[in-house]
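Open question from group meeting: does this chain pack into something compact, or does most of it stay loose? Before anyone orders reagents, we agreed to write out a predicted structure and look at it together. Recording both the input and the output here so the notebook holds the full record.
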Amino acid sequence: MKKISLILLAALLASSVSFSQTIKKVKITDVLKMADTATSPLVINFWATWCGPCVNELKWFEKTIAEYQNVNILLVSLDYGEDYPNAIAKFAKIKGYKAPIVWLNETDANMFCAKVDKRWQGTIPVTLMVNNAKGYREFYDHQLPEAQLKIALNKLVE
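Structure tokens returned:
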């Protein structure tokens, strides 16, 4: 199972958007396995197409994270089931997102939020940053403006 998680993570992180992106359906356990087995620093952002602060934040996430070597990003969509996969992929194409996107196929926010972090009350955007090489795991339960994102990324890689 661990080998499958590593292969899925590698495929997701290696993919890029040309004209459209394949949006994979995942469970929270899959996302957490990706975080727990990442060999490079990883930024996991939970967002939705209908969330203004999420969309606002993502425009600088990709740009800023690209400035850091060996830092990967995974965008976890919390969009509604009827938006999977077409509306999410179309939105990503329009916005020009290049980071891999997965859709969280979970309906019990009380269950999956607590698994990510006990402080997560279900609001979005939220971001989980992990650097397994140094035992670093930080949860941000709010939008990260560009200046705060850079500070957080510096902590992730230092």
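Observations to bring back to the group:
The longest strand covers residues 42-47.
Helices lie at 2-14, 28-37, 52-65, 86-95, 109-116, 146-157.
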